[in-house]
Amino acid sequence: MDGQVGQGREFVKLLITDLDNTLYDWVTFFARAFDAMTRALEPIVGVSREQLLDEFKTVHQRYGNSEQPFAVLELPSVQARFHTKDRTELKIAVDAALHAFNSERKRTLALYPSVQNTLQTIRRRGVRIVGHTEAIAVNAVYRLRCLKVDEFFAHLYVLDGDALEHPDPDRGVTLEVPPGFIHAVPRDERKPNPKLLLDICQSEGVEPRDAWYVGDSLSRDIAMAKDAGVVAVWAKYGTEYDRELWNILVRVTHWTAEDVRREELLRSRAAHVAPDFTVSSFGELLKIVDGETARRARLDVGCR
Questions:
Q1: Fewer Cβ close by (within 10 Å): the C or N end of the chain?
Q2: Are 209 and 268 in a shared domain?
Q3: Which domain holds residue 291?
């Protein structure tokens, strides 16, 4: 029966999962890949790494997104060094830096333990799984596909936004996904706006009380889920990473001063947010869901 987990009564119908630092360690892989790229770029361009980081930040803020690897082709220092703005020519000129990014990404991008088996088990039990991320579509789909878990998702909800196209059209990523698989979320419904989850539940035909949301951020994911009336599961393990790597991302963030102030307010509020459940691994979802299903079954019997 659709929505049945374990041997109890129908309980969980929809699992909405965050992607970055919930299914895989985004902070670690992206920070290391970005760091490798900038260190390889420094001798190519002949300017200090600090200047390059300043320029990256400016480009990221222009696009409202920090995950734009081809932003390197828009850096003033790169264009001045090679006296051109032609993306194809610049891509060839800085290919070693792009290769450094790709190599480090390939080495460090990996699912957290138990993620694949857990997604597979939950899906086999008839629960609909959808992903939600504030990454743009091309990056989110690329990661799910590389990690071989895209098949478990009914839909993917992504933040509406643009990505810099690949300078070589023949090598660009093509989003070959089923029609309707990707849903763009308006920017005014960014986390922690509960309307985001309410709209997802409505789109999936599920009442909020029958949906679970799992994410790593107390201030964004868990606060949002609680406000929406969705079962909130905190992926605490997603907060465990090298803080020096986080500092790399902060250095080139697309966040404006207003964004920083907003984040401070959200974090102060998070001190009073209590998740319904906390997991130290993604695999613990199965135990919690089965435990809650059994508990509700006992309550149901007791009411007869």
A1: C
A2: yes
A3: 14-25+111-241+255-302
The string of DSSP letters for 255-272 reads --HHHHHHHHHHHHHHTT
Question: What is the spatial distance between Cα 276 and Cα 170, in angstroms, rounded to a whole number?
Answer: 47
CA atoms of 133 and 156, how far apart (whole Å): 8
**Last residue of one domain, picked from the residues 87, 107, 127:** 107
Q: State the helix-helix crossing angle for 26-45 and 243-251, rounded to 10 degrees.
A: 60
> Structural domain tally of the chain?
2
Instruction: Quote the tokens at residue 111.
Output: 């699912």
At 163 the pLDDT is 55
* Amino acid identity for residue 36 in this structure: A
Q: Is residue 3 part of a domain?
A: no
Tokens of 122: 């939950």
In this structure, are 91 and 38 located in the same domain? yes
> Do 59 and 86 belong to one domain?
yes
pTM comes to: 0.88
Identify the domain boundary among 84, 107, 130. Answer: 107
| Regions of the chain where pLDDT drops below 70 | 1-10, 161-175, 260, 270, 293-304
Q: Which is nearest to 29 in space by CA: 146, 156, 183?
A: 146
Enter the tokens of residue 110. 């990996």
Give bridge partners of residue 235 from the DSSP assignment.
279
- The string of pLDDT tens digits covering residues 70-87 is 899 999 999 999 999 999
